[in-house]
Amino acid sequence: MLFLIPIHAHLRLLITALTTLLALAWSSYRGWGASSYEQVSVLVEMEVIFTVFGSVGLLRHLLKAWYPWYVWFLLAVLLVFAIAWAYHLWKKE
Question: At the N or C end, where does the chain have fewer CB atoms within 10 A?
Answer without folding.
Answer: N
